[in-house]
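Recap from last week: sequence in, structure out.
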Amino acid sequence: MNAPPLLAVDGLGKAFDGLVANRDISFIIHHAEIVGLIGPNGAGKTTLFNCLAGFHTPTTGRISFEGQDITGTTPEAAAALGIARTFQIVRIFHSMTALENVMVGAMLRSKRVADARYRAEQELAFVGLSHRADNQASDLTVSEQKRLEVARALATEPKLILLDEVMAGLNQTEVREASQLVHRIHQRGIASIIVEHVMEGIMPIAHRMLVLDYGAKIADGTPAEIAENPAVIAAYLGE
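Predicted structure tokens:
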């Protein structure tokens, strides 16, 4: 018997007081897969992330994680199951050090401070921030703060990480480094769904791309297929 996909979304819809943000979205994510989630502004990408991570309860549809129905779960329960996320506008603890920020994530798996510290040090090294461990988070650059948030998410030991515009606002060198980081996360056996507008950062590394427009999925395929899809081209060019 084949194992279930890591994540399965079936007919998901989300409305806010009559405003439909997501409509009848279905897709699956496999273990260790890198999937780009793209679409014009207002297409419903962040709302979908919020439903997957337990911040919103879907109005319709079902979300399954490793075969378990998690529709309407809480962020805490989703994290415990192995779903972590970052945010379009980074949400770090500015008055804490970089190390302390990542320890917060590590405490999900171990309440022993020594264990959490060790795990946090490992993840800071993984994202290239060991030299900033004792710096206050507010003193980090935008690029470093984004990596710090990734490190904190990784410290929760996820099976799936939802990355919300980790390349936005970065220069070309930083975009390349962010792409390499996503690839190294994949090599650890962790799946990624990446909301991104920086196409040169996501297209070369994604195994598959999902495209939303007006809250609905309009395409699902390889980056090469998506680049030539007439519906996707029309959505971006307004044709």
